Amino acid sequence: MAASIIVPLANGPYLVTGPIKLLDPEGREFTVQGDKIALCRCGGSSNKPFCDGTHKRTAFKAETKAS
Q: Which residue from 67, 66, 59 is spatially nearest to 6, judged by alpha carbons?
């Protein structure tokens, strides 16, 4: 089985690729189309946990780099 890869995009969402199984806090599975999703990390999405582009309108800043 291929591994999932999660990349925090500069000032944007978490981009998840690969086999994806996304659960809510009660363990119910979200419907995921395909093998790539963007997860909100700015907190402003109206479609949580998925990104809807709100980070662009709110000037979200959170660059993440591995040390």
A: 66
What residue spans define the domains of the chain?
A: 1-59
DSSP assignments along 3-65, one per residue: PPEEEE-TTS-EEEESS---B-TTSPBPP--TTEEEE--SS--TTTTB--SHHHHTT------
Q: 1-59, which class in CATH?
A: alpha beta
Give burial (CB, 10 Å; 0-12/13-18/19+) of 42: buried
Q: Please give the model's pTM, rounded to 2 decimal places.
A: 0.89
Q: For residue range 1-46, what is the model confidence (pLDDT) as tens digits?
A: 689 999 999 999 999 999 999 999 999 999 999 999 999 999 999 9
